[in-house]
Write a structure and sequence with these properties.
The complex is a heterodimer of chains A (about 80) and B (about 260).
Chain A (H helix, E strand, L loop, with lengths): L6 H17 L4 H17 L5 H30 L1
Chain B lengths: L1 H39 L1 H27 L3 H27 L8 H13 L9 H28 L3 H22 L8 H23 L9 H24 L10
Helix pairs in contact in B: 1-2, 1-4, 1-5, 1-6, 1-7, 2-5, 3-5, 3-7, 3-8, 5-6, 7-8
The chains are: A mainly alpha (about 80), B mainly alpha (about 260).
C-alpha cells in the first residue's frame, strides 16, 4: 500500500475518522444502544398502542443505556 | 397560553443547550490558541485560527441550506440519534468526573502540556508551520462540534437563526473573558457545564428521536422540559451511587 495517499483520499479518511471518533469513539456501547432504541421503537409501531408504549420505552431505554455505560466504566476502573 | 408556554420552554432548552455547548467548546479551543500564541508567536496562531474559521464558515454555507431541504421526520430521527449518542457521551464523562472515577478536565494542565510540547519543537521563524497547524486543528475540531450542535439543534427546531446567534454570543463572551483572564480558563466550571449540556442534548435527542419515529409526546414541547427533569434526577442518582460504591478510588482515572 502506498504511504503517500492523495489529498482526496486523506480528506475522505480524515472525514470518516472524525465521524467514527465522534459517534463511536471509546463508547461503542452507546452507539449500539441508540441503534437498538431506534429499532425497538420502530418495531413498536407495528404493534398496538404504539404511542403509549413508545413514550415510556424510549426514555427508559436511553436511561438504561447511560446507566449500563457508566457501570461498564466503573467496572473497567475497578479492574485496573 | 399553553402554546406560548410550550414554545417558550422549547426555546429555553434550545438556547441553554446551544449556549453551554458552544461555551465549553470555545474554552477548549481558546486554551490551545493561547498556548500556541504565547509560545510560538501570535501571528501564526491567528492565521491558523482565521483559516479554521474560514473553512468552518464554508462548511456551514455548504451544509446549512441543504439541511433545510431534508424531510423533517428524517432529519429529526438522524439528529435525535446523533444527539442521544453525543449527549450520553458527555453525560457519561461528566458523571465519571463528578464521582471521582475520571480525572477532571484541567485547562491549566492542558495549557502547560501544549506549551511544553510546542517549546520542545524549537524556535520559530516568521511563518511558523507548527503554530499554524496546531491553532488550525484546535479551532477547527472544536469549531466543528459547535457547527454540528448549531446546525442539528437549529434546523430541527426550525430556529437556525436563533441557534446561530446564541452560538455567536457564547463564543464572543468566552473569547472576551478568555483574553481578559488569559491563562485562567481552569476557573470555568467546565464539568458542571458539560453535565448541563449532556442533559440538554440527551433530552433533545430523546424528544427528536421520538418525533422522527412519529411518537406524539404528551404536552408536545412541554415534554422536553420533563425529559430535562428526568435526566437531572437520573444523573444525580448515578453520581450518588458511584460515589457511595467507590469512595476510596477517587484518584483513579478511566478511559
Amino acid at each position: 500500500m502506498s504511504k503517500q495517499q492523495s489529498l482526496p483520499v486523506r480528506l475522505l479518511r480524515g472525514f470518516a475518522m472524525f465521524w467514527w471518533d465522534f459517534l463511536v469513539g471509546d463508547t461503542p456501547e452507546l452507539f449500539i444502544a441508540v441503534l437498538v432504541i431506534i429499532g425497538v421503537v420502530a418495531l413498536l409501531s407495528v404493534v398496538g398502542h404504539f404511542n403509549a408504549a413508545a413514550v415510556i420505552v424510549l426514555p427508559l431505554l436511553a436511561v438504561s443505556a447511560l446507566a449500563i455505560s457508566v457501570r461498564r466504566a466503573q467496572r473497567s476502573s475497578q479492574r485496573k | 397560553m399553553v402554546l406560548a408556554t410550550a414554545v417558550s420552554s422549547g426555546v429555553v432548552v434550545l438556547v441553554g443547550a446551544v449556549f453551554l455547548a458552544c461555551a465549553v467548546e470555545m474554552v477548549e479551543a481558546l486554551t490551545i490558541v493561547l498556548a500556541v500564541g504565547h509560545t510560538r508567536g501570535w501571528r501564526s496562531a491567528f492565521e491558523g485560527t482565521g483559516a479554521a474559521l474560514v473553512v468552518l464558515a464554508a462548511l456551514v454555507a455548504a451544509f446549512g441550506p441543504a439541511l433545510v431541504h431534508v424531510p423533517i421526520s428524517a432529519l429529526r430521527l438522524v439528529v435525535g440519534g446523533v444527539l442521544l449518542i453525543f449527549g450520553m457521551q458527555w453525560l457519561r464523562k461528566a458523571i465519571l468526573r463528578s464521582s471521582g472515577l475520571k480525572a477532571k478536565h484541567d485547562e491549566d494542565e492542558i495549557y502547560r502540556e501544549k506549551v511544553a510540547e510546542l517549546e520542545a519543537l524549537g524556535s520559530s521563524v516568521n511563518r511558523d508551520r507548527v503554530a499554524f497547524v496546531m491553532a488550525f486543528k484546535g479551532v477547527f475540531l472544536e469549531g466543528l462540534e459547535v457547527v454540528i450542535t448549531v446546525l442539528t439543534l437549529g434546523t430541527s427546531a426550525h430556529r437556525l437563526g436563533l441557534a446561530a446567534t446564541v452560538a455567536a454570543v457564547a463564543v464572543l463572551l468566552v473569547g472576551v473573558v478568555g483574553v481578559v483572564v488569559a491563562k485562567q480558563l481552569s476557573n470555568v466550571p467546565e464539568n458542571a457545564m458539560k453535565m448541563a449540556v449532556g442533559i440538554l442534548l440527551v433530552s433533545y435527542g430523546t424528544f427528536w428521536t421520538g418525533e422522527g419515529l412519529k411518537v406524539k409526546w404528551p404536552g408536545n414541547d412541554v415534554m422536553l422540559v420533563m425529559f430535562v427533569v428526568i435526566y437531572v434526577v437520573v444523573v444525580g442518582l448515578l453520581v450518588a451511587m458511584l460515589r457511595r460504591s467507590a469512595p476510596q478510588r477517587s484518584s483513579e482515572v478511566v478511559a
